[in-house]
Amino acid sequence: MPDRTAVYPGSYDPLTNGHIDIIERGLKIFDKITVAALKNPSKTYLLFLEERLEIIQETFSNNERIEVDYFEGLLVDYLKKRNITTVVRGLRAISDFDIEFQMALINRSMAPSIETIFLVPSVCYSFLSSKLVKEIYLLGGEIKKMVPAIVDKKLKEKFKQFPL
Ligand code: PNS
């Protein structure tokens, strides 16, 4: 039987413990997970693509079943190029459902062979998002329990002047 691989796409700006929880759950179902960070030149990120990728790479450096990659443009085009037909996304709460449902269906309308699998994170991460992590960090709050240690380290190195 061929390896079952899924792509877990996202912005990862930055990677959070919630993402890690979804990846670990995904590895119970798939042989390999490709964590694919979006490169979107028209979007403003806190971290450069290289920094986002480095964080994911370092976090999973001991796990051969995790591949780290990036994509630009449509997710379905990346999946076609990689010959992968499954997307994993996390569903934290009902508030995620609307947009995730739309994305899954729009991706299916463009590429009918692609399936989206939703995984539910541990309840302790149901409130967690990269957006809130960034906000808390930039306002001087403690993010250590929300992200892998390398994220805290990288943010402190990069934004020595924060909190303002
Ligand atoms: O971590 P995010 O920001 O919730 O991830 C969203 C992402 C990157 C999965 C989504 O925006 C995406 O797939 N973008 C690529 C462009 C695309 O394919 N758009 C059409 C379907 S949404």
- Note the beta-strand portion: 15-25%
Whole-angstrom Rg:
16 Å
According to CATH, the homologous superfamily is HUPs
Through-space gap between termini:
55 Å
Low-confidence stretches: none
The CATH class = Alpha Beta
Q: In percent, how helical is the residue content?
A: 25-40%
Mean pLDDT score, rounded?
95
Order of helices and strands: EHEHEHEHEHH
Biggest sheet descriptor: 3 strands, parallel
β-strand number: 5
**Order of strands across the widest beta sheet?**
1-2-3
| CATH fold field value | Rossmann fold
Given the helix and strand composition, which structural class is it? alpha/beta
Total helical elements: 6
**Which overall shape is indicated by the principal axes computed on the Cα atoms?**
globular
Tally the structural domains.
1
What can you tell me about this protein's structure?
The protein has 164 residues and is of the alpha/beta class. The protein has one domain (5-160): HUPs (Rossmann fold, 3-Layer(aba) Sandwich). It is 40% helix and 18% strand. The chain contains 6 helices and 5 strands. The chain has helices spanning 17-26, 49-59, 75-82, 94-110, 130-138, 149-158, and strands at 5-10, 32-38, 66-71, 86-90, 115-119. A 3-stranded parallel β-sheet has the order 1-2-3, with helices on both faces. Strands 4-5 form a two-stranded parallel sheet. It is globular, with a radius of gyration of 16 Å. The model has no long low-confidence stretch (mean pLDDT 95). The chain binds 4'-phosphopantetheine. 4'-phosphopantetheine binds at residues 9-11, 38, 74-75, 103, 106-107.
